[in-house]
Design brief:
385 residues, D-amino Acid Aminotransferase, Chain A, domain 1, 4 domains, Rossmann fold, alpha+beta, single chain, Dna Ligase, domain 1, eight-stranded antiparallel beta sheet
Amino acid sequence: MFIVSIGAGKNQIPLINACKELGFSIIGIDKNPKAEGFQYCDIKLIESIYNYHDIYLLLKDQLVFDDIAAVVSRSYGDVIKTVAYLCQQFKLPYCDFNSVENLIDKSQFRTIAQQNNIKMPYGILLHKKDFNTLDRLPFPCVMKPPKGHAKQNVMLIDSYLELRSYMQSAKHDTVLIEEYIEGDEIIVIGFVHNQKFYIYDISDKILNAKPYFVDRMHILPSQYYNLYDRLQKLGQTIADAFTLQATPLLMECIISNDTIYLIEAACEFGGEYLADYAIPARLKNNIFKTFVQAIVTGKVDMPAKSSTAAVVKYIMGRSGTLVSYSIPKDKNVIHAEIFAKSGDTLHYPKNNHQRLGVIITKGKTVEKAIQTADTILEHMHIIIE
C-alpha cells in the first residue's frame, strides 16, 4: 500500500519516516528534484504541490489508484486543497474539497465560526479603498492578512497613524482587523478521525515583545490542561461546522478571564518543532504514526498522559552579522539548531521565519526544562557583530 506525501522537503521528513515505519511505501511529490525527503520515497514525482489536477494525472499514470491508503502533508495554506482534491478522487476521508477555501481564508472562517457560536475576537475585513471611511476603531487592535502563516505581516496597532502606515505598506488588498484580547495563548495539537476530534497535547505559547507576534517559547504541558474538556468540545464544534472527516487539526487560542477565544484553526500538524521533537519526547508517542494508523486501520491509539515537561525555546538574535557559535551537548537537550550560517546578515525577527535558532529540552518539571534551555543558550557563545 502507498501513502502519497504532498511535499518532500525537510519539514516533511518526520511524516514520511513515520509512514515508512508503519510499513507503507511512499509516493513523494515536490517541484524540487533535490528535495531532502525524496531519499526516503519509493516513487518520486516532480510537480508543484499546488497543481492538484496535474498530480492526479501523474498518479493515474502510476496505476496505483487501488493501492493508495492515504494522502498526507505537513504543509499549510493552499496545499490542503491538493490533499482534499486527491482524497476526493481516491474516495479517502479528509474534508470537502468545495469547502476548503472556508478553512484557508480567515475572513470566511470567521463567518462560519460565528454561525456556529464559536467565540473569536471581534473582527472586520477592511479593503484598502475603504480605509478612509473608518470612523471609529478600538485600539490596540491586531492586523493580519486574510491568508498567511508564521505570523507574517501580523502586527499590534495602537493608533490610526500606525494603521495608515500598515495599510499603505500592505501588499494585499484587504486586511483583517481584530480586537486585541489580553490573555495567555495556547496551542492545541490534535486531529479529526471519523468526524471525531482528538486532542494530542496542549502547549503554552510565550510571545515576543509587541508589536510583532513572534513565538518565543512553547511550554508543555500547558498550565491550562484543566480546560481539556472545553477545548475538546471546541475542536469538535470546528470539525462539525466545517464537515471535517479525517485531518490533523491545530487550534490557537487565547485564555482570558476563564474564557476561551479561538484565534485560528488549521488542518495541519503545525510547526514550531512541537510534533517533531517536543511532543514525542514528552509523551513517547508519535502523532504522525497515530494519525496515519487511525486513517488506515480505524484504530485510534492515543498516548497516555505524562507529567514530563518539554520546552521549545527560540533564539531571537538581533541585527548584525553572525560571526560564530557552538552547540553544546546535554542529555536533556532534544534538539538544538542555528538557522543561519556564519557570515549571514541578521535582523531582529518580525515573523517566525526570521528567528536565529531553537533549543528544545525536556525535564521532570517545566522549570527544569527552561533552566536547561537557558544554560545551553548561554554556552552557545553566539557572537553577532
